[in-house]
Amino acid sequence: MINHEKLLNYAIPEVRQRVTPRDAVLYALSIGFGQDPMEERQIPFVSTHRGPLVVPAMAVVLGHPGFWLGRPDTGVDAVKLVHGEQEIELHAPIPAEGEVIGQTRVTGIVDKGEGKGALLYSEKRLTDAASGALLAVTRSTTFLRGDGGFGGPSGPVRPPNPMPESAPDITLDLPTRPEQAFYYRLNGDDNPLHTEPEVAARAGFPRPILHGLCTLGVVTHALLRELCGYDPARLRALSLRFSAPVFPGETIRTEIWRDGAFRARVVERDIIVVNNGKAEIAA
């Protein structure tokens, strides 16, 4: 069972990471860039000969502390946790080469009650090791499905971004690959829920699910293409809520409004997998 004070003050080690152009290319490939070799605008993200440009969403995997919630001393039922929400706030371009520092901390825990799970809020500050400059702040909500009823506070709960009532202005379909979770885990997220059928079954899924942050990467690709003209410097921030899992091999349809609102659905099952999305785009 969760010990509220212990988990709230859990010491998550600082992570120093040497970033190379190969890392930037691997990240872009792992979220689906390069599937169309004739799309000239994608090539700088997946080629060291013409870049690489860095997909801004790479901020979520740099300086990542790994699957720390899987450690026994957290008290968390790690098999049943899922990614609930994600926010990225960009302060400077993510470098394709250099050293970065990730400092992650728990910022809040909400007890939804016995049988209803819990919410864990965390924040990572990503800085440039040489200059100390802040590159990005990422904030996550993890839904601990098996851990409610430990006597913790019932709030505050972050409200979702409101969604427009009108039809989206833009839709874009991007496919995922059946083996995509195996590629994505090379970015440092090795939760076996995404690659081991037995673990997925214990968590209540018919097969391994795609990483939520991989889904975020696919959606970020859609935003970069449709709102930023593939210019990563124009994406200043984004936030979203994960509403259902994606299975590797499914097609993600991102629905976008001109004001930066967005959501995404899986075409094959016509189910919304990302909701309450909001992107901040520079002119």
UniProtKB/TrEMBL annotation:
Keywords tagged on the record: Lyase
Keyword Zinc-finger: no
Ranges for domain Peroxisomal multifunctional enzyme type 2-like N-terminal: 19-146
Gene Ontology MF, one: (3S)-3-hydroxyacyl-CoA dehydrogenase (NAD+) activity
Top EC class, one word: lyase
EC number: 4.2.1.107
GO biological process assignments: fatty acid beta-oxidation
N-terminal signal peptide: none
Short name of any one Pfam family annotated for the protein: MFE-2_hydrat-2_N
Start and end residues of each MaoC-like domain: 164-264
InterPro entries: HotDog_dom_sf, MaoC-like_dom, MFE-2_N
PANTHER family: PEROXISOMAL MULTIFUNCTIONAL ENZYME TYPE 2 (PTHR13078:SF56), PEROXISOMAL MULTIFUNCTIONAL ENZYME TYPE 2-RELATED (PTHR13078)
Protein name as it appears in the record: MaoC-like protein
